[in-house]
Design brief:
This protein is of the alpha+beta class and 175 residues long. It is 18% helix and 33% strand.
Length: 175
């Protein structure tokens, strides 16, 4: 693959949970990565990086809303949304709603848009690196930096979390 990737590229090696920034055939930096767990694997894509969002919102995908967020609400209360700094909207681009007015036992995830506001506990922390992907994945920072110390770092729902993300961001932006 390296022959068709160009002079500068980023490689995510999912099984090794590693990221490399390569320039001129030499590794500029290497980063530990947190990748998808077995039941939510990180898909393989080959595409150009498109843009970087600093202090991003996290728009929870319907799969995470359905599998993770709604079950937390039904087991406890909507207070989890306030704790996570998540706002709920009626559909994508719809009006914000009061989550206490929804019957979450019968709610359909696709009917709602869950948006986590920027901040220290945002799932993407300081930055999100976008690229075209039919799977809706991206590279991003994380507030759970302690997870990078684990031997097996298969904790995500498909996206790739980047250790020492500032080094990678500087390399991308200076290219």
């Amino acid at each position: 693959y390296s022959q068709i990737l160009g002079v500068r590229y980023v490689v995510v090696t999912v099984p090794a949970q590693q990221i490399q920034a390569v320039s001129g055939g030499k590794v500029y930096s290497q980063h530990n990565a947190i990748v998808g767990r077995r039941e939510r694997p990180t898909p393989v894509v080959m595409t150009a990086l498109s843009d970087i969002n600093f202090n991003p919102y996290w728009n929870a995908p319907p799969s995470i809303i359905e599998r993770d967020i709604i079950p937390k609400i039904t087991k406890g209360s909507t207070e989890i949304l306030e704790k996570m700094n998540i706002k709920v909207f009626k559909g994508f681009g719809g009006p914000e709603i009061d989550p206490d007015t929804v019957d979450w036992d019968t709610a359909v995830a696709d009917d709602y848009h869950f948006r986590q506001e920027p901040g220290g506990e945002n799932a993407m922390a300081t930055a999100k690196i976008n690229f075209a992907s039919p799977f809706g994945i991206y590279l991003h920072d994380t507030p759970e930096r302690q997870l990078f110390q684990a031997g097996g770092r298969f904790f995500s729902s498909g996206c790739v979390r980047v250790d020492k993300v500032a080094i990678l961001l500087n390399w991308i932006l200076n290219g």
